[in-house]
UniProtKB/TrEMBL annotation:
<protein>
    <recommendedName>
        <fullName>Cyanocobalamin reductase / alkylcobalamin dealkylase</fullName>
        <ecNumber>1.16.1.6</ecNumber>
        <ecNumber>2.5.1.151</ecNumber>
    </recommendedName>
</protein>
<dbReference type="GO" id="GO:0009235">
    <property type="term" value="P:cobalamin metabolic process"/>
</dbReference>
<dbReference type="GO" id="GO:0031419">
    <property type="term" value="F:cobalamin binding"/>
</dbReference>
<keyword id="KW-0288">FMN</keyword>
<keyword id="KW-0521">NADP</keyword>
<comment type="similarity">
    <text>Belongs to the MMACHC family.</text>
</comment>
<dbReference type="GO" id="GO:0032451">
    <property type="term" value="F:demethylase activity"/>
</dbReference>
<dbReference type="GO" id="GO:0005737">
    <property type="term" value="C:cytoplasm"/>
</dbReference>
<keyword id="KW-0560">Oxidoreductase</keyword>
<dbReference type="GO" id="GO:0071949">
    <property type="term" value="F:FAD binding"/>
</dbReference>
<keyword id="KW-0274">FAD</keyword>
<dbReference type="InterPro" id="IPR032037">
    <property type="entry name" value="MMACHC"/>
</dbReference>
<keyword id="KW-0170">Cobalt</keyword>
<dbReference type="Pfam" id="PF16690">
    <property type="entry name" value="MMACHC"/>
</dbReference>
<keyword id="KW-0963">Cytoplasm</keyword>
<keyword id="KW-0846">Cobalamin</keyword>
<keyword id="KW-0285">Flavoprotein</keyword>
């Protein structure tokens, strides 16, 4: 599910279609549920414009099958889930207008608040009769484990290929731990995984086959280059260009995400935001957000 668009044309004045293919889906609420899921929904008053939502869906069972029981999502295997990605133009088309319109209540992490605002707006208006469990990439359970593994979810949904150390034959790193990274076939690394939506009352029919992500970095040499660029040189953005992207971050967005999270409020102030006392950041920001704030 793409939050934003690869189309850099005119912004839309409403949240347009939410497409759910009818064939192969089941709902506890019957046909009326389908009308709710497929209808056109309008943006919340004051929300900046959003572009079309494109769904990358999956069965919970496909996700759980890849993980140990301690990380399973506690839903029946056939339950529908949707992964939400942000595309490069989200920054100019959603985040900056979010700040300009002062839609935040109390500023902690600005991007997290922005994403939560728009997803809450879209879900409440597009699916008012559905029970939707929304889990954000920055949220943790009481045991400090993430509420969902974002890159695994993106891979299972078919949205992006999750390249891991185990995907490289004859690894050159010995015992060194190399963290994996997702690559989108059209955006490369110029995107972020933002949320997981679990539709508790919608299930996928058994005839629905899993759509696997495109392997856009097939060679051993390129996979080594990707993982080394991500693990050792992520600050220079080069890993994101492992495939030719159709769109990249603007220089302004690069400046924002290159700035340390604790310093971003000062940067926003130089851009003309956060000009009053009530706009000042919450000083109890989660440590994880402070250290892992790369977009």
């Amino acid at each position: 599910m793409l939050f934003g668009s690869s189309d850099s044309g005119t912004q839309l004045s409403s949240l347009r279609r939410c497409h759910l293919p009818r064939t192969g889906w089941r709902s506890a609420d019957g046909p009326s549920s389908w009308q709710s899921c497929r209808r056109v929904c309008r943006s919340h008053p004051g929300c900046p414009t959003l572009t079309r939502l494109v769904i990358s869906d999956r069965r919970i069972g496909w996700y759980n099958a890849l993980l140990p029981p301690s990380l399973h999502l506690d839903y029946p295997d056939a339950t529908l889930a949707v992964v939400v990605l942000s595309t490069p133009d989200m920054f100019e088309r959603a985040f900056l207008p979010f700040l300009e319109n002062r839609l935040f209540q109390r500023l902690s992490d600005p991007v997290d608040q922005c994403v939560k605002h728009y997803i809450t707006c879209a879900v409440s208006q597009a699916f008012p009769s559905q029970r939707v469990d929304v889990r954000y990439d920055y949220e943790l359970l009481p045991n400090r484990k993430p509420k969902f593994l974002a890159q695994t979810a993106a891979h299972v949904s078919g949205a992006a290929f999750y390249y891991q150390q185990s995907d490289v034959k004859d690894q050159p790193w010995g015992d060194k731990k190399m963290f994996g990274v997702c690559v989108h076939p059209r955006l490369g690394g110029w995107f972020a995984i933002r949320a997981l939506l679990v539709f508790e009352d919608l299930t996928m029919g058994s005839e629905m086959a899993q759509q696997f992500p495109k392997d856009c970095v097939p060679s051993r040499e390129e996979r080594i280059r990707l993982l080394e660029a991500f693990n050792f040189f992520w600050q220079d953005w080069s890993y994101r260009d492992i495939v030719p992207p159709v769109q990249t971050y603007s220089q302004k967005q690069k400046d924002y995400f290159s700035t340390k999270p604790a310093e971003r409020f000062k940067l926003l102030k130089t851009w003309g935001f956060l000009s009053t006392e009530e706009d000042q950041p919450d000083q109890t920001l989660d440590t994880q957000n402070q250290t892992n704030g790369h977009g």
